[in-house]
Amino acid sequence: MDPLASVSEELAEIDGQIADIFRALSNGFQKLEKVKDVSRQSRQLEELTDKMRDCKRLIKEFDREVKEREGRIDPNTIRMLNEKKQSMIKELNSYVALKKQHQSNLENNKRVDLFDGPSEGFGEENVLLASSMTNQQLIDRGHHMMDETDQAINRAKKVVQDTVDVGTETAAALKAQTEQMSRIVNELDSIHFSIKKASKLVKEIGRQVATDKCIMALLFLIVIGVIAIIIVKLVNPHNKDIRDIPGLAPPANRRLLWSTPN
């Protein structure tokens, strides 16, 4: 019975998946040594790299499962699990080193194919062309090639100058846009300050209007009360329950100081 299965089924399952990946990596690198085609080697290296990524992910899951069970299993089992994890990491690192070696060899092969392939025919063609030309033709050919080189240099200088000009124009445009953004920010700050000030004024005006409305309502009630008292006094002047309004009381009977004799 697998000792990991007695600890956790999840650990045993992860260990089995890692073992399968290690077997696939071993077989893959053995097959890779027999492949001569550069493109096929590149494809197989990519597949093996994907398998190594999966193996690294599984080792992290294994370590996470071990840490979750540290408080529930005995120290000897913890030591065994840690040693198992270290052996997995060591084996994975060996395959990573093997992959780097094959990748370096593959890059060297590509570089050799790149420089060695077309250069032979091109060199032989130049030798045959030069051997069939006279000295004057060689001199003319040299001058022509120098002229072409000068033209290429002039074109390169023009491209560089155009690039510098475009860079200068771009820098100037960026500076102008930066200044414009600064002005916009300042204007926005001013607008925000004006809005806050206007809001305060509106609130003060609202409070004043509310106070004026209260005063007008009170005055209106007083006027209505006075009018009502006047109407009642006119309708029933002998009603003693209603007091006279100062200034509106009927004139009292005045006795004359002297009277004409009969």
TrEMBL record:
Its topology with respect to the membrane? Single-pass type IV membrane protein
Q: Which InterPro entries match?
A: NPSN/SNAP25-like_N_SNARE (IPR044766), Sec20_C (IPR056173), T_SNARE_dom (IPR000727)
Q: Give the superkingdom in one word.
A: Eukaryota
Give the stretches traversing the membrane: 215-235
State any single GO MF term.
SNAP receptor activity
**Keyword line:** Coiled coil, Membrane, Protein transport, Transmembrane, Transmembrane helix, Transport
A GO cellular component term found in this entry reads:
late endosome membrane
Q: What is its main location?
A: membrane
Domain (T-SNARE coiled-coil homology) ranges:
143-205
Q: Some GO term, biological process aspect, for this entry: which one?
A: protein transport
Please report the name of this protein according to its UniProt entry: t-SNARE coiled-coil homology domain-containing protein
